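Re: beginner question about structure tokens

> Can someone show what the tokenized structure looks like for a real chain? I only ever see the sequence side.

Sure, here's an example I had lying around. Input first:
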Amino acid sequence: MCPRTLASAMSPLWPFILLAASAILAIDIPHPRNSAVYHLTKKLLQKYHKEVRPVHDWTQATTVYLDVLVRAVLDVDAQNQKLKTSVWYREVWDDEFLSWNSSMFDEIREISLPLSAIWAPDIIINEFVDIERSPDLPYVYVNSSGTIKNAKPIQVVSACSLETYAFPFDIQNCSLTFNSILHTVEDVDLAFLRSREDIKHDKKAFLNDSEWELLSVPSTYNILQSSVGDFAQIQFNVVIRRRPLVYVVSLLIPSIFLMLVDLGSFYLPPTCRARIVFKTSVLVGYTIFRVNMSDEMPRSTVSTPLIGVFFTVCMAFLVLSLSKSILLVKFLHNEQRTGQERPLLCLRGDTDADGPRTDPRAQLAAMTESPIGQEHQAQPGTLKEVWTQLRSISDYFRTWDQEDQQEVGWLALLERFDRLLFQGYLVVLGLYTVTLCSLWALWSGL
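And the corresponding structure tokens:
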């Protein structure tokens, strides 16, 4: 049979051959399941209007369920009163326009939809003060009953009243308040996705390797009443406390040692120049330590750390004691008696070393034992001159006694003041120690 005769004989069979081949290909290639997802998504969003709140009865409020998981405390800015936290935020609500029968779409019970294509509640954080970079998750999950789940990690920079008075044993309580910015409670109501006790004690997601430790996340629900209406709001309080060990080692213990050294300087004699040199060295140490401490302590315009207050008081005691020692040198040291300087000798030693101090009694004895004195005693006509010399010696005695009395009076007054400073220093150091121990006990009890 020729080829032309064969082709003409099989031409009626070509449609059947093509149909059989397509059937075989349809059997070999699996039917894609995403076609059902495509048709379901197209059906749900075809006539969907995201501008309308998704309820059939407009008098019925849409309840939004909220949940917060604190993951980390990123920064605590006491100077600007800001708290930066990383949280995992979840919100769930029902959309009555996005429900379907799963048996009609290959038993698909949950799909993802773009958040920009559906209605979403306008929930904001009242304490929000700054924009931080957070991963943008543009999709939400929707199940067949119309329940929408929107979960996303966010970095929140919120305003918070930070108290640094008890530093480094401070405990901070910062709130994150969620509410709708436009919808009143008649339109959008809020509720807890989990029980409040579970939210309060949930720490499994917190990264516990930073300076701050998460204590609890208590929450409350209330109605905010305003002139434009009543708004539902949920407040989550993030309660954190600082880990103080590094500050105890680097700040508290060195400050106590420095105060003890300054306290020991009171055992030096008040009339000794070495005390001025020693206290000046301690004052330099106080200044350097204060500069280093200011870099590590939180700066706040609202409150001052208690350790800074005590440190300033101790510096004031040191300056008073140093000023007292300087005044003592001014009143008791006679700089005109010598041109030499002996900075490490006490005042009495300096005055004795400056030159021999003549005793009037010795002068009188020498005068009476000298030939001139004997000659004056032997000659009655010279009694007037002897009387004049005796009067000069008496005046010298009186002047010497007055100087001694003035010196003893100043010494007694300054020693009394020095003792008062020492007792005040002991009281301040005791209060400092007791206060720090109390704060540490309160910190440990939480």
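Each token stands for a local structural state, so reading them left to right follows the chain. The first strand starts at residue 62 and ends at 77.
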